[in-house]
Amino acid sequence: MENIGIFEIVTGIVAFLLGCLATWLIITKALKTRSETIVREAEVEAEVIKKDKILQAKEKFLQLKSEHEKEINNRNQKVLSVENKLKQREVEFSRKQEEIQRKRKEVDTLRENLETQIELAGKKEDELSKMHKLQVDKLETISGLSAEEAKELLIESLKAEARTEAMSYINDIVDEAKINASKEAKKIVLNTIQRVATEAAVENSVTIFHIESDEIKGRIIGREGRNIRALEAATGVEIIVDDTPEAIVLSAFDPMRREIARLALHQLVIDGRIHPARIEEVVNKVHRQVEEEVIETGKRTTIDLGVHGLHPELIKLIGKMKYRSSYGQNLLQHSRETANLCAIMATELGLNAKKAKRAGLLHDIGKVSDEDPELPHATLGMKLAEKYKEKPDICNAIGAHHEEVEMTTLIAPIVQVCDAISGARPGARREIVESYLKRLKDLETIALNYPGVTKTYAIQAGRELRVIVGSEKITDKEAEEVSLEIAKKIQTEMTYPGQVKITVIRETRAISYAK
User: Fold this and answer.
1) Rounded to 5°, angle at Cα 276 from 272 and 278
2) What pLDDT is attached to residue 180?
3) Of all helices (H) and strands (E), which one includes residue 403?
4) Which residues lie across from 503 on neighbouring strands?
5) Over 70: is that where the pLDDT of 140 sits?
6) Closest among 215, 248, 251, 252 to 440, alpha carbons compared
7) Burial class of residue 18 in the structure, from the number of CB atoms within 10 Å of its CB (0-12 exposed, 13-18 middle, 19+ buried)
8) Rg of the chain's alpha carbons, rounded to an integer?
9) CA dihedral sign of residues 281, 283, 287, 290
10) Dihedral, 108, 112, 114, 115 alpha carbons, nearest 10
């Protein structure tokens, strides 16, 4: 029984294995059939793709061929166009050459004709000269005078007659002009001068600073003179402390510097703290105050004279005139005087008094400007007026008052005359002071033009020039070279009495703050 059970199990397993084998054979056959089908489909699809690519390649080839042929045709057309142009130019050149040859022949023909005519004219001229000579000889024989003598007699006769008539007319005109013009001119000028009352403010080159007691002098000098040196370096003014009781002398050619030094000393003496750092602080503060006062002076001047609508920079230049002098005459007073004279004279002549006053006030602004000092002050003033939108007639009057430019308006001669009246009155100007101040200004300008120079001060009446340079720009060795170069330039370019000492100051400062 047990053997029969095992046999059945074995038989079942064999049957199962045969079934699996049959199934595997069926699946294998099916997969083989499927793979053959896929291969055939892939071959068909590959053939289709191959044909499409061949067609696309043929189309691309045809397209490129077409574009290439088109480009070749375009180039051929351009070449033909160029050849046609060259042929046309060649034809035109040939035509012009023929025309030139034709004109050359015409010119040669004309030249020959002219030469022939010139020869004929020469022969005729000779004949005419002979005939003229015969006629002159006959006239000389008849009159008993030579041709030159007759000509001189005729010229002298005409001259005498013309001179007599001209003198008669001239005398009549001059007499009438003297009667009318002299009377009117004297009337206008005298009325103008009589109606203006002025003060002659003559600027000196020193200012006296009064102190309460001589004890303050020692504090101003400071230990080993450090305070007075700091004051002189900051202001550019020579401070003279001598035996004069209760007085210190401030010496400088620039009135603005003297005023800054005077106000700074006043504040330092009142405050009591006098040391180098405080001195620099006070001087800077006073400098700003003086600049504000300059603007305020300009505004007051324009309000007093009734001149309105000026540019702020022009008002500032007018204020600066308070601290400038021209030949010893205060420039602001001179400009106010000229403005009033111009207004009165314009009124007498029936012209615009406001314009004349405006031109008179602005006529010397070129003297106080720092722009382009090489230009004449009248020309510089005219450019400044144009820059700040003044009217053309005002600009012309400013530029023409010393005849640097041509006068184009009636205001210009009025400004010129009134400027001369204001400057020519007795005591108005001093030529020596003006030349002295110009020499000191030139000294400072020469040194200031060197690179690295920050400040320059002419002191000791021009016998010493102090030059302050930036320590970060110039070394000690270069400072010596700058001193020598400035001395050489002053020797070659300027005329001065005695000698000028050039002191170059190079100062290094270390500043820090405790917070």
Assistant:
1) 50
2) 65
3) none
4) 466
5) no
6) 252
7) exposed
8) 53
9) positive
10) 130
Query: Which tokens belong to 128?
Result: 């005419």
pLDDT score recorded for residue 123: 81
- DSSP letter at 144? S
Token pair for residue 239? 């401070």
Containing H/E element for 158? helix 147-177
Cβ atoms of residues 136 and 151 within 8 Å: no
Which token pair is 361?
């006030």
Characterize the bridge pairing of strands 329-330 and 325-326.
antiparallel
Q: Which two tokens stand for residue 238?
A: 């020579």
Total residues belonging to the chain: 515
Whose tokens are 């400038």? That residue is 324
Which residues is 429 bridged to in the sheet?
Answer: none
Out of 132-136, 198-202, 370-374, pick the least confident: 198-202
Q: Is-above-0.70 flag for pTM?
A: no
Residues 6+ apart with CB under 8 A from 256: 290, 320, 323
Query: For residue 278, what pLDDT band results from cuts at 50, 70 and 90?
Result: confident
Residue 390: strand, helix, or coil: coil
Residue at token pair 């030159």: 148
Structure tokens at 427: 């005591």
**Is residue 486 within 8 Å of 450, Cβ to Cβ?**
yes
Give the span between the Cα atoms of 68 and 57, in whole angstroms.
Answer: 16
**What is the residue-wise DSSP string for 420-480?**
HHHHHSTTS--HHHHHHHHHHHHHHHHHHTSTTEEEEEEEGGGTEEEEEEETTT--HHHHH
Of the chain, the percentage scoring pLDDT greater than 70 comes to: 82
Report yes or no: 246 and 214 within 8 Å, Cβ to Cβ: yes
Which of these, 264, 267, 235, 266, lies nearest to 251 by C-alpha position? 235
What Cα–Cα distance (Å) separates residue 105 from each residue in 34, 99, 101, 281?
106, 10, 6, 94
> Encoding tokens for residue 184?
């009117």
> Which pair of structure tokens corresponds to residue 511?
């500043």
